[in-house]
Amino acid sequence: MDARAVDARAAVTRAHREEWARVVAALARRFGDLDVAEEAAAEAFATAVERWPADGVPPNPGGWLTTTANRKAIDRIRRENKRGDKQKEARMLHDDDPPGTSEPPGAIDDERLRLIFTCCHPALALETRVALTLRLVGGLTVAEIARAFLVQESAMGQRITRAKAKIKAARIPYRVPSAEDLPARVSGVLAVLYLVFNEGYLATGPDTDPVRHDLTAAAIRLTRLIRALLPEDGEVAGLLALMLLIEARRTARVSPSGELIALDEQDRGAWDTALIAEGHQLVRERLATGAAPDRYQVLAAINAVHTSARDIRDTDWSQIVALYDQLVRLDPSPIVALNRAIAVAELDGPQVALAAVDRLEDKLLDYHAYHATRAELLRRLGHSQQSRAAYDRAIALAGNTAETAHLTHRRDQLGQPPSGAGSF
Q1: Which residue numbers delimit the RNA polymerase sigma factor 70 region 4 type domain (predicted)?
Q2: Which phi and psi (to 5°) does residue 416 adopt?
């Protein structure tokens, strides 16, 4: 493959990261059909793979893709309406603002935000909203989404297909909700944005970049938009703070060789101080209100404690465990219990933490982080053989290439002096 073809393929990959959501959102707004939007967008990218190596990368890749996708959608509609309603066809092909897509006064003019609220409509189950948004807004493959949900790819594909069909059948509008409806709808949107961020923070697909800045940046940007709509909502502020404090550590999380770097080994001088300052300010503002915090606010507070420490040895683990105790009451999930156990290991020792982790076995048997945590605790207790077996299981389950490299390295170091059990 010559250099021009290599450059063109790299440009297609970059455009998919940067432009997928814009293209799908523009088509969804124009044609009012998510199937048409997704399939036409996919066809446009497939055409780019064929043509850009020969014709060169266009000056405006996003505009080229949107124009091409529009033409693909029009061709499909014409084929499907060949013996149908010609008047409806003409309206769909030429109206800039199809019926049902007009915005209420003062709504934020962002195509992707409209698309998110469509995907997050309360008529859909929460997990379905998340999956649909990851697919249509995040551009993830069905396989990647299935891994994020720990379900089979075929089951996830059926879930997404049914969701799009339900949106079409129920005539769910493609718009930002009115001001009075917005608070009730925002919790589902926050759940979606958090999972989109998590997929970028630690990508699940084995053939993707281990850290996808395009997804974390998109999640932060859209959360900022939600905060502009609801500036007094504590959970919106909490989620934004949480994202900022995690994103601040991004450049220190992967080594030049592509290995994930644990929190206790990261170069804290490489953390983004501006993002940390903004995140801390949001946490302080919420504490000053005196209102009882909810899940995202507590998670943000935990990360504020981590990012306040100049050195891992300065971390206030007792405060972190206390915050996890509060979080367990709000969200008694096994993953929260697992993360609490990691903090307990630093406060009360690995033996106490291992007992807590082992109680989660039946709930997290297929979750790689469960086995990775056990491996690290067993390592610290000097049980090398058991630790190696746990590392092997974690490596087999992990899909992230940087995380797999880190786990492999830790396994191969067995027998050397142990360090902390820190996260990433």
Answers
A1: 116-167
A2: -90, 165
The residues near 120 (Cβ < 8 Å, ≥ 6 apart) are 129, 133, 185, 188, 189, 192
Pair 183, 252 in one domain: no
Q: The pTM is what?
A: 0.74
pLDDT confidence bin for 84, thresholds 50/70/90: low
Contact assessment for residue 29 and residue 40, using Cβ atoms and an 8 Å cutoff: no
The DSSP bridge partners found for residue 414 are: 416
Q: How confident is the model at residue 207 (pLDDT cuts 50, 70, 90)?
A: low
Using an 8 Å Cβ cutoff, are 337 and 328 in contact? yes
The verdict on residue 211 lying in a domain is: no
**Among 66, 169, 69, which Cα is nearest to 121's?**
169
- Asked if 318 and 348 sit in the same domain, the reply is no
Q: Helix and strand tally (H, E) in the chain?
A: 20, 0
CA 424, CA 410: separation in Å to the nearest integer? 14
What residues pair up with 254 in beta bridges, in sequence order?
A: 260
Q: How many domains does the chain have?
A: 3
Nearest to 113 by CA among 133, 97, 139, 127: 133
Q: What pLDDT shows up at residue 178?
A: 80
Sign of the Cα pseudo-torsion (253, 258, 264, 268, in order): negative
C-alpha span between 237 and 224 (Å, rounded): 9
Neighbours of 216 (CB within 10 A): 20
Instruction: Quote the CA–CA distance of 409 and 424 in Å, as a whole number.
Output: 15
